[in-house]
Design a protein that fits this description.
This protein is mostly helical. It is about 80% helix and about 0% strand.
Length: about 110
């Protein structure tokens, strides 16, 4: 699911604005899949805690990214920062895809 986001993050600088629509679609697809996975694998009475951690972590990383993006782009250059971010993104996805539990994840309730 993350691979389309990686591909889009590499194409945005090259293709410009028209790529933002598929990028938004990919992000929306990921959000639906993530929400569905959490809701089908976590008991209803325990859903609040993983959701709270997810939201808190996401907000923290957005704030950190916004605080660091400007100074880092100024220091190394915006194109270099975007390429480095794409490489890091692909590396994280590759590590996740190597993990056996991630590769063999099954949906609950499918016959």
């Amino acid at each position: 699911m993350a691979l389309p986001l990686v591909a889009v993050s590499l194409l945005v600088p090259a293709l410009g604005m028209p790529v933002l629509v598929p990028a938004g679609g990919s992000a929306a697809f990921w959000l639906v899949m993530w929400s569905t996975t959490v809701q089908t694998h976590v008991p209803p009475e325990a859903l609040n805690l993983p959701h709270a951690y997810d939201v808190a972590g996401s907000l923290l990383m957005v704030a950190a990214g916004r605080a660091l993006a400007g100074p880092v782009a100024e220091a190394v250059g915006a194109p270099e920062l975007l390429v480095a971010a794409a490489v890091i993104n692909m590396g994280v996805v590759a590590v996740l895809l190597v993990a056996r539990p991630v590769r063999r994840f099954k949906r609950i309730g499918l016959v």
